[in-house]
Amino acid sequence: MSTDWLPGIWRLVRADEPLDFAPGVRMEFRPGGVLHYHVDVGGTDQVIELVYRVDGDMLHTDNPAAPHSMSVRMSHGEGDSLLFDFGGPRALFVREV
């Protein structure tokens, strides 16, 4: 799968109930496998710097500052959306302009 479409900032629109996404989450995919995960904490934008790689339709992320990695199936959807499928529960993001 080509990921030429992935770089940029993606904002959470909705996530299925079992997923633990905070409101206002944004993911900023940067060149070189850098991912900035933005979370609003009391009106302040907190950024967690992650690294990512894509293998087929799987997104793999890792936090070098803490022992936490994750893999999730992703797809580029209609209207320039980004869909994550966590083996059932899903999260939908749209590109910020």
What does this structure look like?
The structure is a single chain. The protein is an all-beta fold and 97 residues long. The chain has strands spanning 8-15, 26-30, 34-41, 44-55, 58-63, 68-77, 81-85, 90-95. The two termini are 23 Å apart.
Tell me what portion of residues adopts beta-strand conformation: over 45%
The poorly predicted ranges are: none
Q: Which whole number gives the mean pLDDT?
A: 93
Main sheet record: 8 strands, antiparallel, barrel
- Tally of DSSP helical segments: 0
Strand order of the largest sheet: 1-2-3-4-5-6-7-8
Question: What gross morphology would you assign?
Answer: globular
User: For the terminal residues, how far apart are their CA atoms?
Assistant: 23 Å
What is the percent of helical residues? Answer: under 10%
Radius of gyration: 13 Å
Secondary-structure element series: EEEEEEEE
Return the structural class.
Answer: mainly beta
Number of DSSP E strands:
8
Write the layout of secondary structure elements.
Elements: E1 8-15, E2 26-30, E3 34-41, E4 44-55, E5 58-63, E6 68-77, E7 81-85, E8 90-95
Antiparallel strand pairs: 1-2, 1-8, 2-3, 3-4, 4-5, 5-6, 6-7, 7-8
Please summarize what this structure is.
The chain is mainly β and 97 residues long. It is 0% helix and 62% strand.
